[in-house]
Amino acid sequence: MSCRELERLFVSGAAEADSARHRATCDECERLGAELDRTVSLSAALRPPAWSPALRRALLDIPRSTVSCETADGLLATLVEGEIAPEDEARLRSHLSRCGACAEAAATLQSMRSLAAPEAPPWLAPRLAAARPDRKKRSFWRSAFSGRMVVAYAYAAALIVMLLGLNPTAVVRRAGFAGLGESTRNAVTVAESSIGDRLGALQEKAIRTLAVWRGRIGGYGRAAVSNAFALVWRPEPKKTPNRPRLGKDGGAAATPVDVDVAAGQREELSAPILRV
Amino acid sequence: MDRFGQRVYAIAYHFTLKREDADELSQEIFLKIFENLDRYDGGFPLVAWVLSVSRNLCIDRYRRRKRENSFRFVSDEAVTALLKSDDDPATLALTKERTRMLFSALAEVPEDLAEILILRDLNGLAYDEIGQALELPEGTVKSRLFRARAEVAKRIRARHESHSLGGPLASIAMAAAGLV
Questions:
Q1: Which of A96, A104, A114 has its CB closest to that of B160?
Q2: pLDDT the model gives residue A44
């Protein structure tokens, strides 16, 4: 049965010195230990594998040769429109060849334009045509005497009569159809005089209003000047006899009657000024 | 009329994905067109003008269908209307699955992006037509379209990753798309 002490010491993480002591006493473990040492030294002597420059270039080229899914979404939009740059298209196609989801999105977007147009039902075309209103061209006389035009003529006639100051009922009653021309002339004369009277009245009213405002403005001006003089040349108030004041120090405060007297004096002073 | 009606119907269908709704919507669009026809001065391409006057109708329908969760589980019938009948069964099955996923992903992106993608990629409108219809500069149309596609691609990718469909289906997809 072989000695497994060296293995036990290695597994338990014992110190190198303990292993060396055991190897000095056990030939079998000494042989095993020597083999292990050789293996370790051989491994340590190996160099790490050097990657080839071609591999390095290929790895560095990955960002230039493909795109992420998020970028592919945007590139797909330009691909469908046919406005994608050739280098972007190469990157996109490289990505699509690996990414099933993006390939499906691309195929779906591209299929949109090749879908068939839905066929309208056969009964729809006549119905749509029936929705078209009848737009036959009317004759001149028909349109000249249409409902709207008749109303417009009536309004126009009424407007002309009003402007001329005619009273059609009175004209017809007084003159009858035979004297219509004379009555019309009379009516025009009356309307002219009436318009003249109205204009005269308006002028008189305007003149009166102007005079009133002139008077008011003059009055306000004089009152303002008088007030200004009164403020500058205020007469000395009459001295009133001293009264005992009783405030905080035991005197009497001004009574409401005193206040009223003072207000009365102020009114007396200002009254003649305001009356100017 | 037939060709134009067909075009309007296709737009209506892409916004609703339902026959009945598309019928109603296209009639509403036509009524709107005829009501406003005297305002069309020919300065716009006709389809852009039609879209500009009927945009709210389309968006309202689209929102309603989204509220009903109709795009989340797209029916077979809805997708079949968009398939070409001359494709072989395998391609048909794959396209059906993709179309279903496309509309499902489309419903998850913001409306303004989905709208542009529908108009451009499903209805083939030009940038300037979309810009005139939506009253947007061409640059904005392009940037929104870019974002829309990127968002849809992201969502489709996420679905594949979450459903672990990266195996056989992806291989078939890649083979079919000629990407391998």
A1: A104
A2: 83
A248 located within any domain: yes
Same domain, A14 and A64: no
Domain with A101 in it: 53-111
Residues A162-188 pLDDT 10s: 777 777 666 666 656 556 667 677 777
Domain that holds residue B83: 2-177
Set of chain B residues whose Cβ sits within 8 Å of the Cβ of A111 = 95, 98-99, 102
Handedness of CA A106, B143, B68, B55 (dihedral sign): negative
> Is A21 part of a structural domain of the chain?
yes
Contacts of B165 in chain A (CB under 8 A): 100-101, 104
Q: Provide the domain count of chain B.
A: 1
- Chain A interface residues facing chain B, Cβ-Cβ under 8 Å? 69-70, 72-74, 76-78, 80-81, 93, 96-97, 99-121, 124-125, 127-129, 131-133
pTM over 0.90: no
Could you tell me what percentage of chain B is helix, strand and coil, using 3-state DSSP and rounding each to the nearest 5?
75, 0, 25
Q: What CATH number did the domain enclosing B98 receive? A: 1.10.10.10
pLDDT, one tens digit per residue, over B63-79 is 988 888 777 778 888 88
The closest CB to that of A124, out of B26, B81, B165, belongs to B26
**HSE, side-chain direction, 13 A CA sphere, residue A178:** 0
Q: Are A205 and A156 in the same domain?
A: yes
- Whole-angstrom Cα distance, residue A3 to residue A26? 8
